Amino acid sequence: MDSGNYANINSAHGVGDNKHHLEWCPKYRHDVMDARIAEEMKQILLQIASEKGISVYKIVVDVDHVHLFVSLPLQMSVSQALQYLKGISSYKIFRLHPDFREKLFRKGSFWSPGHFSRSVSCVTESTVAQYIDRHEYPKYVPKNGRQGTLSAS
């Protein structure tokens, strides 16, 4: 299936673009990611993304939050991507730094339960509306070759 610019972004039954800006922070918004921890976290997140088929266009790990600009596989939801990224990175950072769990994050998880997400596209709402409006209906042509309208009967 080819749909213009999306020829290389496809799955078995669809074509599209699934880009998102994601942001989340450590539990209690602790300032725990100094330069060394931030670099470790960046590498962990990039590894997870690679393993799960997530394309990372931009990543910033700050002392108290993470920003990612990603393209998700078409079959992956934002919540599933966040579950992978936050869950696996939490596990790995605790393995690298057990003192975090003992001193700062006694309740179990490294990340706060919340997040920010927004879909990102080069297409505006008005562009989509115009695209749909420009299509001629009906497009359905029966096997007998006569073009007609679809009816509920």
Topology readout:
Elements: E1 19-24, H1 35-52, E2 55-61, E3 66-71, H2 78-96, H3 98-103, E4 116-120, H4 125-134
Antiparallel strand pairs: 1-3, 1-4, 2-3
Question: What's the short version?
Answer:
By secondary structure, this protein is an alpha+beta fold. The protein contains four helices and four strands; from the N terminus they run E-H-E-E-H-H-E-H. The protein starts with 18 loop residues before the first strand and ends in a 19-residue tail after the last helix.
Q: Can you describe this structure?
A:
The C terminus is likely disordered. 35% of the residues lie in helices and 16% in strands. Strands 2-3-1-4 form a 4-stranded antiparallel β-sheet, with helices on one face. It has a domain of 107 residues: 2-Layer Sandwich (Alpha-Beta Plaits), CATH 3.30.70.1290. A hairpin with a 4-residue loop joins strand 2 and strand 3. It is an alpha+beta fold and 153 residues long.
List keywords for this structure.
disordered C terminus, 153 residues, Alpha-Beta Plaits
Q: Report the average pLDDT across residues.
A: 80
Which CATH class of the domain at 16-122 is shown? Alpha Beta
What's the helical proportion of residues? 25-40%
Judged by helices, strands and strand pairing, the structural class is alpha+beta
As a percent range, the share of strand residues is 15-25%
Low-confidence stretches: 148-153
In CATH terms, what is the fold-level topology of the domain at 16-122?
Alpha-Beta Plaits
Tell me the Rg in angstroms.
22 Å
Strand order across the largest sheet: 2-3-1-4
Give the CA-CA distance, first to last residue: 31 Å
Number of E-type strands: 4
| Backbone shape | elongated
Tell me which oligomeric state these chains represent.
single chain
- What's the order of the H and E elements? EHEEHHEH
- What does the largest sheet look like? 4 strands, antiparallel
The tally of helices reads 4
CATH superfamily of the domain at 16-122: Transposase IS200-like
- CATH architecture call of the domain at 16-122: 2-Layer Sandwich
